[in-house]
Design goal:
By secondary structure, the chain is mainly α. It has one domain. It is built from 5 helices and no strands. The protein has helices at about 5-20, 25-30, 40-60, 65-90, 95-110. The protein starts with a helix and ends with a helix.
């Protein structure tokens, strides 16, 4: 069963990438940021689109514990950074907590291949 969890995480990462690439306004709203210019929209497409697509697709192509571990550590690092931000800023709003849960959850799904 654990071998399927990183595949699920890869597909979820790809889905987020597709949303970021083709629907940057939706992603911006979802994560609570505003793009003020075309470069802002480009940044959303690149980071939330291209980067997530690249990570998810690469994991499916490589299909190894090493690839899943790298992706899992990246997502987990994002969760640790967000948790640090939540504690430092004392900003416990739902979007921030949901973001933390999503990042930690995807990280755990990727790292499940190590168990």
């Amino acid at each position: 069963m654990n071998e399927y969890l990183p595949i699920i995480a890869s597909l979820f990462t790809i889905t987020l990438g597709v949303l970021g690439l083709f629907f940057p306004y939706k992603i911006a709203n979802m994560v609570g940021i505003k793009e003020k210019s075309k470069i802002g929209k480009s940044e959303i497409r690149a980071t939330y689109g291209g980067l997530f697509l690249g990570i998810g697709i690469s994991c499916l192509i490589i299909n190894s514990q090493d690839a899943f571990m790298v992706a899992g550590l990246a997502w987990s690092s994002a969760a640790v950074a967000r948790l640090s931000s939540i504690l430092i800023e004392r900003y416990y709003q739902s979007k921030n907590l949901i973001g933390l849960a999503v990042e930690a959850g995807i990280g755990i799904l990727f790292l499940a291949s190590m168990l």
